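One example given next:
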Amino acid sequence: MDLAVLKGLEDQLGRVQMARDFAEDYSELWGQRERRLVDSLQSGDRTAALDAVISLKVSSAMVGGLRLARLAAVLEDAVREGDLHYEALAMVSIHGPATIAELEHRYLRKGGSSGSVASCGNHVERPEITGSASR
């Protein structure tokens, strides 16, 4: 989580509350975003998968979830190449909830970016990867 990104969003919008609202919406929509991505990949709908992964990539970057945005970019490249079973999906499914947890802990609970703006990774234990997300 890079809180400097959220501080920049606050500055751009001119209101901390607008940035917080965006971050809250991002957090609340995570489950829907992940489900849409998984469903589109499982059904083989390349267009829907691209739409879902690009939405995830852009919105993650906007809230400072840079690791998740990078993983979404890797998955986007795989989908563009026709690989709808790419293993990056498993990593997205791991880092998505970790990004949400960190966003809520480091930004939303503290009332904005008034705290430290240092970057850090997602500090959570990684669950075992199972399922059809591997090649």
